[in-house]
Amino acid sequence: MRPCLCCALLAAWAAPGAADVATGVPDTLHTGLRARVRELDAEMLQNAVGKHRRFLVLMHGGKDTAVSAFQPWLYALANFLPHIPLGRVDLSQEGGSNLAEGFAVDASEHPRLKLFVRDNPMGKRIIDYLGPLDFEAMLGWARAAVNDEVHELSAYGVEPYSGEDEPELQQAHAQKQAEAGGAMSNLPESVRRMAQTMVRETRLQRILKQHGGGRVEQYDAMVQQKYAEIVGEESTDLEDKFQVQEANRRARDFVRDQLMADAPLHIREEVEADVNLGDAKKGMGNLKKGEGKKKKKKAKK
């Protein structure tokens, strides 16, 4: 059975954080978060979908009265999906006609909601919403789409041609990524495992800190409990620095794996993403700083 603290930490990802109520959201549908719907032009859209793994975009014709009436519900949608950035593009503005042509959108018919998934393979990077301009239907679709789940109102959308889609450029990009990963594989096994643990630890700690409520401290308590179990069961020599570090690493990996097993997809992706050499150097640097601070505290005592 998992510790109760584990349940408390998982609740951090299921429940919204404490913040000001979003303006413009129907009274019965706010979550306590301040929603943000970004107004985008063609260039801003390109930057946004390149920066974020997932990005929801409503494309509309500008003077559409249905879109104006739906605006409060759009903020409600952003409230219920706080980890997914949401933007709006007016295709009647400058550059809008090129966007409409590139994405095969006829803004005069009805608005189009699209989910951009940056890391999907070509042909699956845009998921269209095929349903009506209805909040409940959109929310159900969006929740399924962002978790890579099949939904009856989903279909892959048209992707504008990009020179980056050329096979030669794709191959070069893949080779560059492989070389970055190869640098990590050249490290000694013990160093590589420790670096991966510390980088993912940093990512997880950052998320827990953002949610507040003492969740970092709860996580540390879970790690300490598991560490004590390992040390006791295996009679770890506490004078052996390597054995102590290895027990600590395994405890952190064990607790993180527990949390990630039931965490939302976007959390798992952020925490468990591949670790490159640059990440590893930074992670090991943070580890040394932490050890230095602990030594200073002991010296003061």
Number of helices: 11
Tell me the strand order in the biggest sheet. 1-3-2-4-5-6
Level-1 CATH class name of the largest domain: Alpha Beta
CATH superfamily of the largest domain, by name, is Glutaredoxin
DSSP, total strands: 6
Predict the CATH topology of the largest domain: Glutaredoxin
- Which structural class should the secondary elements be placed in? alpha/beta
Largest sheet: 6 strands, mixed
**Strand-and-helix sequence, N→C?**
HEHEHEHEEHEHHHHHH
Shape: elongated
Q: What is the average of the pLDDT values?
A: 76
Intertermini distance: 38 Å
Portion of residues in beta strands equals 5-15%
Helix content: 55-70%
Number of domains: 2
Poorly predicted runs are: 15-27, 29-33, 176-181
- Rounded to an integer in angstroms, the radius of gyration calculated over CA atoms is 23 Å
CATH architecture of the largest domain: 3-Layer(aba) Sandwich
